Amino acid sequence: MFLKNTHADYRSALDPRDAETLGADAAAEVERHLSFRDNHAQTPLVALPGLAKQHGVAAIHVKDEGHRLGLGSFKALGGAYAVIRLVLEEAGERLGCTVDIAKLRAPEVMAVARTMTFACATDGNHGRSVAQGAELVGARAAIFVHAGVSAERVAAIARFGADMIRVDGTYDDSVREAARVAWEKGWTIVSDTSWPGYERIPGLVMQGYTALVREALRELPAPPTHVFVQSGVGGIAAAVAGHLVLEFGAARPVFTVVDPARAACLFETARAGHPVRIAHGAPTVMAMLECYEPSLVAWRILSRTADAFMTVDEEDAIAAMKQLASPVAGDAAVVAGESGGVGLAGLMRAIADPAVKADLGIDAQSRILLINTEGATDPGRYEEIVGLSPAVVAARSRKGEPA
């Protein structure tokens, strides 16, 4: 399914709060924070000229977040960053002075952190980031996971010392339970989705994501003309789209939000013209995108900045994973998890449909930017789907060597 953005706010200016959250100054501060992380390194921007030629476009680049901060997902940029910011702010209030990131490990700051507990709900990746951030500062983390989160993903979070709490139902059920328990116990909820009265912390999470956009824009030989970004509650899509609007203004690239057909909360919100909660149906292979209600802040941004919304099916996501693992001759392989290649799935589906291709203005001069939002965060599941282990694909990822 495909639809163009017809919302009344389309192409209007960002809300001032969102412009401040996602602007150049805020993004530069995120990168400064990252410079204090011991395991920080810029993630690769992978050019796929063979695939671009195959699809009749000028260029396809993939920002590969499967290498981010040892967590294998773009979410590493959000939750941990928000935790660190919140600790610094709390320390500043208690100590009566501004506390800079450079003093994060000062004894008096660590003493404050030890009194704090950070909670969140997760499909896997966001929880890892929050737990890692809490471990980094010496705080406690309580991570709520729903019934569909695999044991392997739970173990990957628990290794950071987090308390793991299982919740019956869906991701959205775990979000509500995490908020309820955190309120009762006085914990700080660090969610990547937002609801009425709860916007600032999800805004910090989204702010963390701007680092990947700045890195990509510095490396691209020319600005992109088209961007396809996958969506769960909408945080990564809104962060990228919002930052691109602030960077390029009216000359911004055409931006398409890609949803799983089985969990298309942004698509249905765009169709309705207002945030909607969709019914829970069959699970999707795109596990990190299985969300049934959008973030209010993300929708506020995307209603203004997204040009189109589309859905992809299960087989589309699997085809994209396999395409990236076994690329066109001459291209590098990319290890993309079940949700990681969904932007590419959207691109391939759009190009295959002449009407959609024309609506998006994709032609021989188009320069496409995609984000691999996760690597093989569940290696067993990855090998089951792709037929190759992530290690084999990674070992053969040098340009020109077929996977």
Automatic annotation (TrEMBL):
<keyword id="KW-0456">Lyase</keyword>
<dbReference type="Pfam" id="PF00291">
    <property type="entry name" value="PALP"/>
</dbReference>
<dbReference type="GO" id="GO:0008838">
    <property type="term" value="F:diaminopropionate ammonia-lyase activity"/>
</dbReference>
<dbReference type="InterPro" id="IPR001926">
    <property type="entry name" value="TrpB-like_PALP"/>
</dbReference>
<keyword id="KW-0663">Pyridoxal phosphate</keyword>
<dbReference type="GO" id="GO:0030170">
    <property type="term" value="F:pyridoxal phosphate binding"/>
</dbReference>
<dbReference type="InterPro" id="IPR010081">
    <property type="entry name" value="DiNH2opropionate_NH3_lyase"/>
</dbReference>
<dbReference type="InterPro" id="IPR036052">
    <property type="entry name" value="TrpB-like_PALP_sf"/>
</dbReference>
<protein>
    <submittedName>
        <fullName>Diaminopropionate ammonia-lyase</fullName>
        <ecNumber>4.3.1.15</ecNumber>
    </submittedName>
</protein>
<feature type="domain" description="Tryptophan synthase beta chain-like PALP">
    <location>
        <begin position="39"/>
        <end position="371"/>
    </location>
</feature>
